[in-house]
Design brief:
single chain, about 450 residues, alpha/beta, Rossmann fold, Helicase, Ruva Protein, domain 3, 5-stranded parallel β-sheet, 16 strands, elongated
């Protein structure tokens, strides 16, 4: 795809050299020697991409131009060139909206690939819009929902980050949905038509993980009878997702970092350099800074991955999502299992909302799958849930010599403690207790009258 490209560099010879390559690839090119000149050119000529030097003394540099370009049109792809190659500068540029960065001397093959990605991104704008609409309605059509404020904030960040080429570090408890967030980021990006390759780092023995990622040549080690393309190659043009990155051996983390910085790698036992053309997402259920302090995650790799951090909230912090998630899973498993299950009893819904869900969305999904299979009719009853979930709010009497309290007094204490546990939310309290909202309201009115009397 032919693009309109603006090259901004105070070194005329460098700019002209890039211009010659770009024209050879079929792009339309304009050159500017400063931010001021580029700004004037932008008034009359809209590029699809800007390739700019970071430092252009004595005037403002590439970051200032990046901000101006983003202010004019955020869909103009911005590629930053730097002779310094520091992670800090690269991260700053990408966080402010740059599509990617290249170190000098410029890797021409990499530049051509980046421009190709920008072309694909432009073609995918309508597709991205469709996927954004899909993401906004995931309460009805997907595994993750956006009814809670926490998830809405996460989805908003996903929408903004997905079209870039920035690395993303996804954190959150086990079962919270980190892998699904990575998958959706890929589907919303310009790489959606290319492979999404997920790797569960602790699931592959340390001795095999390197060859799985890098691949190997025939004869590289005993048993290597044929050439083997690694996951870096399988992810070409797409996204590589490294789940539980903190479980990767530090020695392999060093090699991964080099690939991410140079965008090149060699198969184990090979001499030919190959281009690493993939976007990287990583995830961990650990606190990443603590993992760095404990030596589980190299600090330089952490900084390279942590361009954008996305925290997936645990299910217990977003109770508003439990009901729509449960409904989605019921529909999913009822279809798979060919069961005429249509919903949950009032008591069952109360138990789901009262549960802490230490296993998060995965635990809820498994609980609903089990309940759909066991349900004897169209409604899931409390007895269909796993024992760990099948519980109501119960007040345990103190052990010892205390006299037995009347049943009505025990009920009163249970209701008042349940109200306190649910922050005075009467609807959730009624569900957790397995009674109707009207019954709860009537009991509370009676307690109020008794206190006045």
């Amino acid at each position: 795809m032919s693009l309109r490209v603006m090259v901004v560099d105070d070194h005329r010879a460098s700019a002209e050299g890039l211009r010659d390559y770009l024209k050879e690839w079929g792009h339309e090119v304009s050159i500017a020697a400063s931010v001021a000149e580029a700004s004037q050119l932008l008034d009359t000529w809209r590029p699809d991409a800007v390739v700019s030097d970071l430092m252009m003394p004595p005037g403002p540099g590439g970051l200032a131009l990046l901000r101006e370009v983003r202010g004019r049109d955020p869909w103009i792809g911005f590629i930053m060139l730097t002779g310094f190659g520091t992670i800090e500068e690269a991260v700053k540029a990408i966080r402010e909206g740059a599509f990617d960065f290249l170190t000098k001397p410029v890797d021409i093959d990499r530049l051509q690939l980046l421009l190709g990605r920008l072309g694909e991104r432009n073609e995918m704008r309508s597709e991205v819009s469709r996927l954004r609409r899909k993401l906004s309605s995931l309460g009805e059509t997907g595994v993750i929902v956006s009814r809670s404020p926490e998830m809405r904030r996460l989805i908003e960040l996903m929408e903004r980050v997905a079209p870039s080429s920035a690395s993303v570090l996804i954190t959150g408890e086990s079962g919270a949905g980190k892998d699904f967030v990575a998958q959706m980021l890929h589907e919303m990006s310009g790489r959606a038509r290319a492979p999404f390759v997920a790797v569960n780092c602790p699931a592959i023995p340390e001795t095999l993980l390197e060859t799985e990622l890098f691949g190997h040549e025939r004869g590289a080690f005993t048993g290597a009878l044929t050439d083997h393309a690694g996951l870096f190659e399988h992810a070409a043009g797409g996204t590589l997702f490294l789940d539980e990155i903190t479980e990767m051996a530090p020695s392999l983390q060093v090699k991964l970092l080099r690939v991410l910085e140079t965008r090149r790698f060699r198969r184990v036992g090979g001499s030919e350099e190959k281009l690493a053309d993939f976007r990287i997402f990583a995830a961990t259920n650990r606190d990443p800074q603590r993992a760095v302090d404990e030596g589980r995650l190299r600090s330089d790799l952490y900084y390279r991955l942590n361009v954008f951090r996305m925290e997936v909230p645990p299910l217990r912090n977003r109770p508003e999502d439990i009901a729509p998630l449960a409904a989605r899973f019921i529909a999913h498993f009822a279809k798979i299992e060919k069961r005429a299950v249509e919903g949950l009893s009032h008591e069952t819904m109360g138990a789901l909302e009262a549960h802490d869900w230490p296993g998060n969305v995965r635990e809820l999904r498994n609980a609903i799958e089990r309940a759909v299979v066991l349900a004897r009719g169209p409604v899931i009853d409390l007895s269909d849930l796993p024992e760990s979930v099948m519980k109501k709010v119960v007040v345990h009497a103190r052990h010892g010599s205390a006299p037995v309290e009347p049943l009505e007094e025990l009920e009163r204490k249970a209701i008042l403690r349940a109200l306190e546990a649910f922050d005075q939310n009467k609807t959730r309290t009624a569900r957790a207790l397995g009674i109707s909202l009207k019954t709860l309201q009537n009991k509370l009115k009676r307690y109020a009258r008794e206190e006045v009397a």
